[in-house]
Automatic annotation (TrEMBL), chains A, B:
<comment type="similarity">
    <text>Belongs to the class-II pyridoxal-phosphate-dependent aminotransferase family. Histidinol-phosphate aminotransferase subfamily.</text>
</comment>
<dbReference type="GO" id="GO:0030170">
    <property type="term" value="F:pyridoxal phosphate binding"/>
</dbReference>
<protein>
    <submittedName>
        <fullName>Histidinol-phosphate aminotransferase</fullName>
        <ecNumber>2.6.1.9</ecNumber>
    </submittedName>
</protein>
<dbReference type="InterPro" id="IPR015424">
    <property type="entry name" value="PyrdxlP-dep_Trfase"/>
</dbReference>
<dbReference type="InterPro" id="IPR050106">
    <property type="entry name" value="HistidinolP_aminotransfase"/>
</dbReference>
<comment type="pathway">
    <text>Amino-acid biosynthesis.</text>
</comment>
<dbReference type="InterPro" id="IPR004839">
    <property type="entry name" value="Aminotransferase_I/II_large"/>
</dbReference>
<keyword id="KW-0808">Transferase</keyword>
<dbReference type="InterPro" id="IPR015421">
    <property type="entry name" value="PyrdxlP-dep_Trfase_major"/>
</dbReference>
<keyword id="KW-0663">Pyridoxal phosphate</keyword>
<dbReference type="GO" id="GO:0004400">
    <property type="term" value="F:histidinol-phosphate transaminase activity"/>
</dbReference>
<dbReference type="InterPro" id="IPR015422">
    <property type="entry name" value="PyrdxlP-dep_Trfase_small"/>
</dbReference>
<dbReference type="Pfam" id="PF00155">
    <property type="entry name" value="Aminotran_1_2"/>
</dbReference>
<dbReference type="InterPro" id="IPR001917">
    <property type="entry name" value="Aminotrans_II_pyridoxalP_BS"/>
</dbReference>
<feature type="domain" description="Aminotransferase class I/classII large">
    <location>
        <begin position="36"/>
        <end position="357"/>
    </location>
</feature>
<keyword id="KW-0032">Aminotransferase</keyword>
C-alpha cells in the first residue's frame, strides 16, 4: 500500500515550473550553441568568486554556517540595513517557497499576474493557496490593479516582479511605494527584485527595510553570475525575517556558495562590467531583432522580449526553430505577451550565433504557422 | 501591520535544531582545533571530487540540471535500481522536509524516538504533525516498539536511523525487514541511512527498492566528505519518488555539487580509504576513552558515543570543557543517553588534540558537577 499523502498533495499534479535546458539538450541529442533562455549571466561571476569558491572547497567537508553570518553581515552593510533585516536562502525559488509557507494556508487568496513567475504559483498551489490572476497591462504587471484586487479580496500575498520577467519593463520605486499606500492591512507584497542590478536607479524602492508591507527578494543568480550556486536573500522587517527561522532548512546553504557570494559582493568592478556587458547585449539583441523586422521591447533586465508580430503559435514555433539551430530561448506563457520570445543577453559569440540563426528560424517558423 | 501568518506558523517557535560550530566559534572568540561535533568527514572528499567541482565552477553561471539526470543515473547503477527509484535533493535535511510535507497534515501522527534526529522532528512540527516519542532501549532506537506504536496509532510516518545517531549502534537489515512485516498498512518508514557507508554489511536492507513501506535516505555529507555541498538522495518506490515532483524545489541543486557527487561515486578507492580511516579513528577514540576510565560504545558510524559514567550534567559540562580546550563535540539530548558525549572520527592530528584535551576537560567537568 502506498503512503497516505495529504489531501492537498493528492490534489496536486506532478509538475515542474520549467523544463531545464539540459533536458532539452538530451531530447535534442546535442548541446545548445547559445544558451539564452534562462536569463542566466553568460558573463559569469568574478574571477575572485571562482577563487573564493575553490579555496572554500578545501573545507567542503564542513557544513555551511547555518546563519550565513559573514554573508548576511556583508549584505547588511551593502544595503545599509541591519543583519536582522536579511535572510540568506537557497535562491529566490527557495525563499518564495518559505514566504508562501509562512502565510498561505489552504484556501487563502494570493494575487499575481497571469504570465508572471510560475515558480511562485507552484509554491502557492503547493500550499493550497487560491491564486487570483490579473492580466498584464501595456506589457507590464498592472500594479494598481494588483494592489486593488489584493485589497478587495483580503489576499495574504500580492506578487510583483520589478523589473518584470518575462517582459523586461519596470515600475519606478516611487510608484510602488505610492501603490503600497493603497494596500489593505495585512497583505504582504512579495517584491521579486531578481533583476534589480541591471535596472535603472529609479526602480529602487524608496522605503525603509522596516516597512512591514513588503518583502524584497534578491539573488546572486542573475547579474552576479551564480545561478548554479543557489544563493538568494530576502530583505524585510526584522520580525518577518525572524519568522523564517520557524520553517527554513537551517543547514541548506552550500558552503562554497556562501564564500562565493561574499566574494561577489566584494567585487563591484566585475558587477559594473557585467551591467555594461548586459546593456551592450540588449542593444545588440534589439539591433538583430529590428534588422529582421521585429520589435524589441525596452528592458531593465538581462534579457529582451522581442515582439514577433504574430501570436503564441508563431512564438512557439520560433522557440522550436531557434532551438533546432542551437539557440535556447524561452517565451511568455500567456497572450498577448506570448506574441514575444524572450532572449537573454549573451557574449559577442552568442550574439553572432543568434544573428545567424534568427533569419532562417523566423522563416521556418512563419512557414510552419502559415502551413 | 505584520503579515498574517498561518495559525500553524503562529504556533511554532523560532528555533534551530542545531547550533552550528561557526556560531560557537564566534561566541568563543576562537576557532576549534578539532572539529569533532557534527559527524562531518574530516578526511574530506576525493581529490577527484575537488577537481570535478572546480571544473564545474566554470559553468556556475548556469542553473543546475533540475532533474540531476547524470547523478541520478549513476546512483541508479550504483544501487542496481532504476533512475525512477531515486530522487536527488538538498541533503537529507531537505528530503526529510519534503517527505513530511507529502504525508503529514496538521494533527497527523508520527512516531520517532526520544533523542533521535531533531531535524526530522522540526519538520514534523513545522507541518503540524503530532510527534509520538518512544524511549531508546539498550542505547538503540527500539525498532519493534516503534513499529508497534506506529501500527497501533495509525501513524503516517515512523522514523528510524540505521545506523543510529547519536548512539552509533545499528539493527541488521534482516531485523528491519522483519519488523516491516508488522507495520500497519499505509504507514511509511523513513529509514535514515546517513551512516550506511561505514556500517557493517548486514545493516543493508534486503528488500527491493519497489517496497512501498519504506523510503531510504542517503547522503554525500558523511563518508563522501561533502557536508557543505548539500547533496542527499532518497531511494524508494517509483510512485513515491514521483510524488516529490509535486512539491520539491526543482532548481534547488548546486551545479558544482552535482558534479562533485558524480565524481565521488566514481572513486570507490577514496571511499574505501575513508571507511578504513574512520575505523582506525573509532579505535583511537575508544582507546583514548578507555585510557581515561570511560566506556566507548560500539559504533557502525563515523563517530563514537562515549559513556562518561555520569548524568547529563556531567556530559554537558564535558562538552563545554572540551570546547574551551578547542575540541568541538556534541552529546545526546535525552536521558539516559545523555550520560554520553558524541565524538566524530578525525585525523591523527585531531586525535592527538583530543588525547591531550580530554583528561583536563574531564577533571574540570567532574569538579564543576561535584561543586
Amino acid at each position: 500500500m502506498p503512503p497516505r499523502y495529504t489531501p492537498l498533495v493528492d490534489s496536486l499534479p506532478a509538475t515542474v515550473p520549467f523544463i531545464g535546458p539540459e533536458t532539452l539538450e538530451r531530447e535534442r541529442g546535442a548541446g545548445f550553441d547559445a544558451r539564452l533562455g534562462a536569463n542566466e549571466s553568460v558573463f559569469g561571476p568574478s574571477p575572485k568568486v571562482l577563487e573564493a569558491m575553490r579555496a572554500a572547497d578545501a573545507e567542503i567537508w564542513k557544513y555551511g554556517d547555518s546563519t550565513s553570518y559573514d554573508l548576511r553581515h556583508a549584505l547588511a552593510e551593502h544595503h545599509r540595513v541591519a543583519p536582522e533585516n536579511i535572510l540568506v536562502g537557497e535562491g529566490i525559488d527557495g525563499l518564495l517557497g518559505y514566504v508562501v509557507r509562512l502565510v498561505v494556508a489552504p484556501g487563502d487568496r494570493v494575487v499575481t499576474s497571469s504570465g508572471a513567475y510560475p515558480t511562485f504559483n507552484y509554491h502557492v498551489n503547493g500550499h493550497g493557496g487560491v491564486l487570483d490572476f490579473l492580466a498584464y497591462r501595456d506589457d507590464r504587471e498592472d500594479l494598481p490593479a494588483l494592489v486593488a484586487r489584493a485589497t478587495d479580496t483580503g489576499a495574504k500575498l500580492v506578487y510583483l516582479a520589478n523589473p518584470d520577467n518575462p517582459m523586461g519593463g519596470y515600475w519606478s520605486g516611487a510608484e510602488i511605494a505610492a501603490a503600497l499606500d493603497d494596500l489593505g492591512d495585512g497583505t504582504l507584497m512579495v517584491l521579486d527584485e531578481a533583476y534589480a542590478e541591471t535596472a535603472p536607479e529609479d526602480a529602487a524602492l524608496p522605503l525603509p527595510v522596516t516597512d512591514e508591507r513588503v518583502i524584497r527578494m534578491r539573488t546572486f543568480s542573475k547579474a552576479y553570475g551564480l545561478a548554479g550556486a543557489r544563493i538568494g536573500y530576502a530583505l524585510g522587517a526584522a520580525p518577518l525575517i525572524r519568522a523564517f527561522e520557524k520553517i527554513r532548512n537551517h543547514f541548506g546553504m552550500n558552503r562554497s556558495a556562501q564564500a562565493g557570494a561574499l566574494a561577489a559582493l566584494a567585487d563591484p568592478q566585475h558587477l559594473a562590467w557585467v551591467i555594461d556587458s548586459v546593456a551592450r547585449s540588449r542593444d545588440e539583441i534589439a539591433r538583430i531583432a529590428a534588422g529582421n523586422g521585429l520589435t524589441p521591447l525596452p528592458s531593465a533586465t538581462n534579457f529582451v522580449a522581442v515582439d514577433l508580430g504574430g501570436d503564441g503559435d508563431l512564438a512557439r514555433a520560433m522557440v522550436t526553430e531557434l532551438g533546432a539551430r542551437g539557440v535556447f530561448v524561452r517565451m511568455p506563457f500567456v497572450a498577448p505577451q506570448d506574441r514575444c520570445i524572450r532572449i537573454s543577453c549573451g557574449t559577442e559569440a552568442d550574439m553572432r550565433v543568434l544573428d545567424e540563426a534568427l533569419p532562417p528560424a523566423l522563416a521556418a517558423a512563419r512557414e510552419k504557422v502559415a502551413g
